[in-house]
Every structure is written in structure tokens, then in C-alpha cells.
Specification:
Elements lengths: L9 H4 L3 H10 L4 E2 H8 L3 H13 L3 E6 L2 E6 L1 H37 L9
Antiparallel strand pairs: 1-3, 2-3
Helix pairs in contact: 2-4
């Protein structure tokens, strides 16, 4: 089965770790390409290519000021990604609660006077 193009939707675009890194870096504020290159230690053509993909699927927006291009995340386009991932957060919260309960039960068992802790 052929793989979907990275520009077909936001999910395919963020499958690439560098693009997720760029999105995370842009989350706090708008930044010029050069700053992204320096901060993430990537080469400029690579950053421009990744920004092009992110822009094509709508995850980032670009603003021109003279010859400089500034990029920022598009929160509205990221919202569907967040909503989808949030479905799994419920699962992980449940799993973490179970791990916590098991750990607490184990601590209680080992701290009872009638059940001394095993010798090491």
C-alpha cells in the first residue's frame, strides 16, 4: 500500500520528527527562519522544506516583512490533532491510575508489621 503524501493532511505532516520539533519551537512565538535554523541546529534548506510542508497543510502561517519571513503556529489547525490525541489521554490516565494503585498496595503490604520487608 502506498504511503500518503506528507502534504495530504496534518497527521502525515507531523509524522516527521523534525516537523514536530519545528512546531514545538514555534508554539511560544513567531520566529524567522534563521532563528529556527540556529535553535534547532538544522540546515536552512531542510527547515524551509519542512516549513513548506507545515504551511501547505495549514499548521503554520507565514508573514513577510520586507525580505524576511516569519512563521508561527496556526492553533486552529492544530486543534484537531489535539482533540484526536486527547482520546488516548483518557486511556493513559486510566493506566497511570492503575499503576499508582498497584504501587501503593505493594507499599502497604510491605509496611505491615506482620509482613516484614524482604531482606536484600
Amino acid at each position: 500500500m502506498a504511503r500518503a503524501a506528507t502534504t495530504s493532511d496534518a497527521f502525515n505532516a507531523i509524522a516527521e520528527p523534525r516537523r514536530r520539533e519545528i512546531l514545538s519551537y514555534l508554539a511560544t512565538q513567531e520566529r524567522p527562519v534563521g532563528e529556527i535554523v540556529i535553535a534547532l541546529k538544522l540546515d536552512q534548506p531542510s527547515v524551509s522544506k519542512h516549513l513548506g510542508v507545515l504551511r501547505k497543510v495549514g499548521l503554520v502561517r507565514m508573514r513577510c516583512e520586507g525580505r524576511h519571513k516569519f512563521y508561527r503556529t496556526n492553533a486552529a489547525a492544530i486543534q484537531p490533532l489535539h482533540a484526536w490525541a486527547s482520546e488516548f489521554e483518557k486511556f493513559w490516565q486510566h493506566q497511570l491510575l492503575r499503576v499508582k494503585e498497584r504501587a501503593e498496595a505493594q507499599v502497604q503490604r510491605h509496611s505491615r508489621p506482620d509482613n516484614p520487608a524482604p531482606k536484600q
